[in-house]
Specification:
Layout: H1 10-86, H2 91-121, E1 131-134, H3 135-143, H4 147-152, E2 156-160, E3 166-169, H5 171-187, E4 194-202, E5 205-213, H6 250-261, E6 265-271, E7 275-283, E8 318-322, H7 326-336, E9 341-345, H8 348-357, E10 362-365, H9 374-383, E11 392-396, H10 401-410, E12 414-417, H11 422-443, E13 450-453, E14 456-459, H12 460-475, H13 484-490, H14 495-505, H15 510-528, H16 533-539, H17 545-556, H18 560-566
Parallel strand pairs: 2-4, 8-9, 8-10, 10-11, 11-12
Antiparallel strand pairs: 1-3, 4-5, 5-7, 6-7, 13-14
Helix pairs in contact: 1-2, 1-7, 2-6, 3-5, 5-6, 13-14
């Protein structure tokens, strides 16, 4: 019997089957592994998206809540200012008003912290304005706010900053980082502990250190303290200052983002139940100033300076206050009633009825109101020729630059944010009304009929006449027969009257004026076009080449070719 070759034996077939099964198994394994990896990546992406949505929902919630806080905070601040003025002679009551004012400031700072975090998320805060500043002065100014807290909690506060230390940085950003780190240090320092602040230059970089004794931070949790997803969570606190401050973790996250925008870095050293130290290093940046958008209202707001228009007890100006919050309306009315007649409306519809019966001298309005909002109200007023002249001041809890820009763009003359100062409000109102009266006086005066033109004061009618003459010359410049008679005919007047009018307005006669216009336009064409000199001569309506060269030389003390080369 003849044996088959080895590759056709039973063992060979078993080997083939085994290899086939193994190959299929490996293919299935790798496909399954790939599917599992894809599913894991998808799950991770979904998890990240959920975290983003959760953070966004938290921020939206807190932003909306903080906007609602602004209105009652405004009322509290206004009442506090009123009480302060009433009890200036009573030292005992003044202590209570000081406490009230300080706590209003603290609450406003906490609100601003949440709003600032939101602004940074949306990239609305710019820290590119760099200037040379005294680090000693900045630290000294901020530390003074924390001295009473240190004394109250028996905390030893140490500061070590060279008096001559200057550095290029953004003042707003540096102050925000410094305050957040010091506040964080006091928050977690136990009574009788130590807080140390130091700044120095190390390897051509500014190094700011904020050290505090206390509970410290576990090493595993250090990467999480700047995590944007870890914000808005409650943390256990350890002294009386902690209960007064924010427990949302926003400060460190904001500081981290500011430091990154300043091209620096922040690190943490800590030992549990012993200490925590935050180390900020900032590079030396070149001085750079950004052009800041000018306030379209162009109103200098100076607290304590009133520009009071002329009024008397029998002739007070009427001011309309529009806000759906009755407490705000009461506060503004109470603050202004000694100088103005204040009318109030709680909806836009009600305000429009009042305006239709009596035109107010000025309107103060909120933005967020039911049915018709403040922006639509302003738009309606500015579209009506009988109300478009009324100055409008917006007072709103919508405080972002975008909100303020939108309000000013639609027609508001000034935009104040809640909580506002009634003193500043009065200054803005009085300035707007003063400007309004001055404009009215100007347009009723003979002076309003005159304007400056080319350094000369001329009547508006004369200016309109000269504009018409220039338009006729410009349209017919290539015509050689462009003469005073032609211009007089176009203006429907005789030549004699044309000469008389010119003699009254201009030092040039009509002929000289036309000639001067031709050569001025020719000089412009020499510089701005590539036309030949011959083509330019025809363009300005001159046929005699030698005449053109002679008069051009007389006017500019150089030939047309030299003029083109020099310019």
């Amino acid at each position: 019997r003849k044996l088959p070759p080895w590759y056709l034996t039973n063992w060979a077939y078993f080997a083939y089957i085994f290899v086939f099964i193994l190959t299929c198994g490996l293919i299935i394994y790798f496909i399954r592994k790939r599917i599992i990896n894809k599913n894991q990546q998808l799950a991770q992406r979904i998890k990240e998206e959920q975290k983003e949505k959760l953070l966004e929902s938290k921020l939206n919630f807190f932003t909306n809540v903080t906007h609602e806080f602004c209105t009652p905070l405004t009322v509290i601040k206004g009442v506090s200012e009123y009480i302060e003025k009433s009890v200036e002679s009573d030292e005992n009551l003044k202590k209570y008003t000081d406490v009230l004012r300080d706590n209003v400031t603290n609450l406003n700072n906490l609100i601003q912290e949440i709003l600032d975090f939101r602004k940074m998320e949306e990239g609305q805060i710019n820290f590119s304005d760099i200037e040379e500043v005294s680090i000693f002065d900045l630290v000294d100014k901020q530390v003074k706010w924390f001295i009473p807290i240190a004394e109250q909690n028996n905390i030893q506060l140490k500061v070590s900053v060279p008096q001559e230390l200057n550095w290029n940085t953004n003042v707003l950003g540096f102050n925000r980082v410094l305050v957040n780190l010091i506040s964080n240090a006091f928050k977690y320092t136990t009574q009788g502990g130590i807080v140390e602040i130091s700044a120095t230059i190390v390897k051509e970089r500014l190094e700011l250190r904020v050290y505090n004794t206390g509970q410290g931070i576990e090493e595993s949790k250090i990467p999480q303290i700047f995590d944007r997803y870890g914000v808005l969570e409650n943390i256990e606190t350890s002294n009386s200052y902690s209960s007064m401050t924010s427990r949302n973790g926003l400060g460190l996250s904001i500081s981290h983002d500011i430091i990154q925008s300043l091209k620096g870095k922040i690190t943490v050293r800590s030992e549990v139940d012993k200490y925590a130290e935050f180390i900020v290093t900032l590079p030396y940046l070149p001085v750079a100033r950004t052009e800041k958008e000018e306030n379209k209202a162009d109103i200098p707001i100076e607290e304590g300076i009133d520009f009071i228009p002329e009024t008397n007890a029998d002739n007070k100006k009427t001011v309309l206050v529009v806000d759906d919050n009755k407490d705000i309306v009461w506060l503004i009315t109470n603050a202004l009633s000694d100088t103005y007649i204040v009318k109030s409306a709680y909806t836009v519809e009600e305000a429009l009825k009042i305006i239709s019966s009596q035109t107010p001298a000025l309107i103060i309005t909120d933005i967020m109101m039911p049915n018709v909002d403040g922006l639509e109200f302003i738009r309606l007023l500015k579209e009506d020729k009988f109300s478009k002249h009324i100055p409008i001041i917006v007072i709103s809890a919508k405080i972002t630059e975008k909100d303020q820009s939108e309000g000013l763009d639609i027609g508001a003359d000034a935009y104040l944010t809640k909580p506002f100062s009634t003193t500043v409000l009065r200054s803005v109102m009085n300035r707007l009304l003063t400007v309004k009266d001055e404009l009215k006086d100007y347009y009723y005066s003979p002076e309003s009929a005159y304007n400056y033109s080319e350094g000369q004061l001329i009547h508006q009618e004369d200016k309109a006449f000269m504009d018409s003459v220039v338009a006729i010359i410009s349209e017919n410049l290539e015509q050689e027969n462009l003469r005073p008679e032609f211009i007089a005919e176009k203006l429907n007047m005789n030549t004699r009257n044309l000469y008389r009018r010119f003699k009254k307005i201009s030092a040039l006669s009509p002929n000289d004026f036309i000639k001067d216009y031709r050569f001025t336009y020719a000089s412009k064409l020499l510089v701005t076009t590539s036309l030949t000199i011959q083509e330019i001569i025809y363009k300005v309506g001159i046929t005699n080449k030698s005449y053109f060269y002679r008069e051009f030389l007389k006017k500019y003390n150089m030939t047309p070719k030299e003029y083109r080369s020099n310019k």
